[in-house]
Amino acid sequence: MSVDGTAAYADVTGLPPLVGRAVQVARQAGFAPSCRPEQGRLLYALAAGAETIGETGTGCGVGLAWLASGARPGTRLVSVEQDARRASLAAQVFIDHPQVSVICGDWREIHRDGPYDLLVLDGGGQGKSGEQPADPHRLLRPGGTLVVDDLTPARHWPPRFGGAVDQARMHWLGHPGLDAAELRLAPDLAALVATRRFAETSGTTDR
């Protein structure tokens, strides 16, 4: 989710119908930090290569709508939202899309339907603010894709945030089981995209 992400859709046209519906619900609910269009387009593209998709932090369903719009028929999508009202609003957005499930609960509820081909960490599990980051070996299939969004683009190394080294970003970029890179989506917005490495027969995660 991005600060004022909902407002970023004010002048955007040609949205997938499901995305437009979710944005309208977010506006009506006064929910500001929706997935921005730049991030949504990335999710739309990545969803096409997945059969199972997980997301933490549904909000009112804007990011999930991008994922569902880009996914192929038969793809299963699961998203977790801790706020009961937002979870209920998002579930209504997808009432006619039985392949999409919205779970109300702590982000760790995402474990029950994994592992995934594509996992989007948006509302828990990113490792921000000192929280325990998600374990990609539990949640991702080998070769699966992980997305950590809503980052300020790094302009030096090591990346910094709030005047200190960004430990959450360093965790993902240096994770021994992942090949990760930062993608700049806008001058003020970036995302980390990582692929889980295939384990060798020795059982290690390094190639």
The number of strands is: 9
Residue stretches low in confidence (pLDDT < 50, at least 5 long) are 200-207
How many helices in DSSP terms? 6
Structural class: alpha/beta
The percentage of residues in β strands lies in 25-35%
Helical amount: 25-40%
Distance between the termini: 33 Å
Strand order of the largest sheet: 3-2-1-4-5-9-8
Q: Specify the overall morphology.
A: globular
Kindly provide the radius of gyration, computed on alpha-carbon positions and rounded to a whole number of angstroms. Answer: 16 Å
Arithmetic mean pLDDT: 93
- Biggest sheet layout: 7 strands, mixed
Instruction: Please trace the helix and strand order, writing H or E for each element.
Output: HHEHEHEEHEEEHEE
Would you kindly provide a written description of the structure presented here, covering whatever features stand out?
- With 207 residues, this protein is of the alpha/beta class.
- 26% of the residues lie in helices and 27% in strands.
- The protein has helices spanning 17-29, 37-47, 62-70, 84-93, 136-139, 167-173; strands spanning 52-56, 76-81, 100-104, 116-121, 140-151, 160-161, 164-165, 178-186, 189-196.
- Helix 1 packs antiparallel against helix 3, helix 1 runs antiparallel to helix 4 and helix 2 packs parallel to helix 3 (62-70).
